[in-house]
């Protein structure tokens, strides 16, 4: 067994006021060496401000339109997740203009998955952000915004952020830590090149969102569902026999919109169980988690866009071998969340060496139904309203297998299903290409700096 160790001077211990070995891992010491041999500037000198966002803003202030308001859950690997993005009224934003961000300014998660980074989309005229987020208003005249974003996303930025996080008792970033981050400067031509690369990648991500939105719109128009659920009446009249049959009395379950949802489509609707075989996942317990090995796919790992890269958990090769026959997902299967955030569906695009958790189920799609069409039906308002009906009313939501089997799927003609599914496939392909180009761009930044 090879022992990893580092030799450091006593003066380094005194300067950092740290004695724990993790702080002096070789990768961090190598980082110090890289910075000492390069031209650097601090983040504070390249920005108009480094601030945390609006404090104690009530959700009552959230609106569907207005100024985009970024929260921790919106910050992903480089680009905002706008799935649950909220806005605030212009008048609220005007009172908090000291934290206003502009296109391509940078946002970091202060808590949660600490150090996640996104840019403010180019198509936004402005944005604001919450107290659990750190905003960097970048001086475009001092540094190209796209280059700074790529640098912070690269290992040169991420290692600094991870090391700064070690200084805290709890997992969180302090403003001083971000203000003191060092940025290695390249030539003006090189920095502009990387700025333009990030803009190209952003356009691919935007194209992916647009294609997926088109597919969802086509689906809803096809089956006649109004996306604006406020159009459905907010009240219902039900018989006691219905309450008894459902085994619950909460008003949310009997909202009229759930019944109206099924009634508006001219196409036949059939339960999900007619199109899939369902298999549950496995829960080995957190004590089985490893730092490396085979992927353990949890609810938090999944989005409708795929399996996330951050905060992954792993299982040993031995445990994977024991479980893979029953719990390893296959290409073409739909992974569907049933707990915590139920109703997220994603079609696996290729083979994967991993195991699904107990909060995830596998849907093996039978012939005659396109998996991408089926997943979109579940992810769309058509499916989500049914999930809300079944799994609502609890602090921690659980969607039972029997409920999953019974959700209704609208059966569009095969030709129309294929058109919709093809748009979804194009959307996923564009996103996959954008993610690969982003990784390539980060690696190019690192390689260029290493060669200097």
How would you characterize this protein structure?
The protein is α+β, with helices and mostly antiparallel strands and 452 residues long. The chain folds into three domains: 1-37, no CATH class; 41-187, DNA methylase specificity domains (Adenine-n6-DNA-methyltransferase TaqI, Chain A, domain 2), CATH 3.90.220; 268-411, DNA methylase specificity domains (Adenine-n6-DNA-methyltransferase TaqI, Chain A, domain 2, Alpha-Beta Complex), CATH 3.90.220. Helices cover 39% and strands 16% of the residues. It contains 14 helices and 21 strands. It has helices at residues 10-16, 26-36, 90-95, 145-153, 155-166, 175-179, 188-223, 240-246, 256-263, 317-327, 371-379, 381-391, 401-406, 414-451, and strands spanning 40-42, 47-52, 67-70, 78-79, 86-88, 106-109, 117-119, 128-129, 133-138, 182-184, 269-271, 276-280, 294-297, 302-303, 306-307, 313-315, 334-337, 345-347, 354-356, 360-365, 408-410. The strands form seven sheets. A five-stranded mixed sheet has the order 2-9-6-7-4. It has a four-stranded antiparallel sheet with strand order 12-20-17-18. A hairpin with a 7-residue loop joins strand 17 and strand 18. Helix 7 runs antiparallel to helix 14 and helix 9 runs antiparallel to helix 12. It is globular, with a radius of gyration of 24 Å. Residues 1-7 and 235-249 have low confidence and may be disordered.
């Amino acid at each position: 067994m090879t022992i990893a160790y580092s030799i450091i001077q006593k003066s380094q211990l005194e300067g950092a006021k740290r004695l724990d070995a993790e702080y002096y891992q070789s990768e961090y010491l190598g980082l110090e060496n890289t910075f000492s041999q390069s031209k650097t500037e601090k983040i504070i000198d390249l920005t108009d401000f480094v601030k945390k966002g609006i404090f104690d803003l009530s959700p009552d202030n959230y609106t569907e339109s207005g100024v985009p308001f970024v929260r921790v859950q919106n910050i992903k690997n480089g680009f905002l997740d706008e799935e649950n993005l909220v806005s605030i009224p212009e008048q609220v934003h005007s009172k908090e203009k000291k934290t206003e961000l502009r296109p391509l300014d940078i946002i970091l998660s202060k808590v949660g998955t600490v150090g996640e980074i996104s840019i403010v989309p180019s198509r936004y005229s402005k944005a604001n952000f919450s107290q659990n987020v750190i905003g960097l208003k970048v001086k475009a005249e001092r540094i190209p915004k796209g280059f700074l974003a790529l640098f912070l996303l690269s290992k040169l930025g991420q290692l600094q952020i991870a090391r700064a996080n070690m200084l805290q008792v709890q997992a969180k970033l302090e403003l001083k830590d971000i203000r003191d981050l060092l940025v290695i400067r390249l030539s003006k031509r090189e920095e502009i090149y990387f700025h333009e690369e990030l803009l190209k990648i952003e356009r691919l991500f935007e194209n992916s969102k647009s294609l997926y939105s088109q597919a969802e719109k086509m689906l809803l128009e096809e089956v006649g569902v109004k996306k604006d659920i406020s159009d459905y009446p907010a009240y219902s009249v039900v018989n006691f026999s219905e309450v008894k049959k459902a085994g619950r009395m909460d008003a949310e379950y009997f909202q009229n919109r759930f019944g109206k949802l099924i009634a508006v489509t001219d196409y036949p609707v059939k339960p999900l169980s007619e199109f899939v075989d369902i298999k549950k996942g496995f829960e080995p317990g957190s004590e089985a988690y490893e730092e490396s090995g085979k992927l353990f796919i949890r609810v938090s790992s999944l989005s409708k866009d795929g399996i996330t890269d951050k905060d992954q958990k792993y299982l040993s090769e031995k445990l994977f071998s024991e479980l893979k026959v029953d719990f390893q997902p296959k290409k073409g299967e739909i992974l569907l969340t049933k707990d915590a955030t139920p109703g997220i569906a994603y079609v696996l695009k290729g083979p994967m060496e991993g195991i699904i958790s107990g909060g995830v189920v596998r849907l093996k799609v039978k012939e005659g139904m396109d998996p991408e069409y089926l997943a979109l039906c579940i992810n769309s308002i058509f499916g989500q309203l049914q999930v809300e009906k079944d799994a609502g009313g609890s602090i921690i939501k659980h969607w039972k297998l029997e409920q999953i089997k019974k959700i209704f799927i609208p059966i569009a003609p095969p030709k129309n299903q294929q058109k919709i599914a093809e748009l979804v496939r194009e959307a996923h392909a564009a996103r996959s290409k954008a993610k690969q180009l982003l990784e390539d761009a980060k690696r190019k930044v690192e390689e260029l700096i290493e060669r200097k």
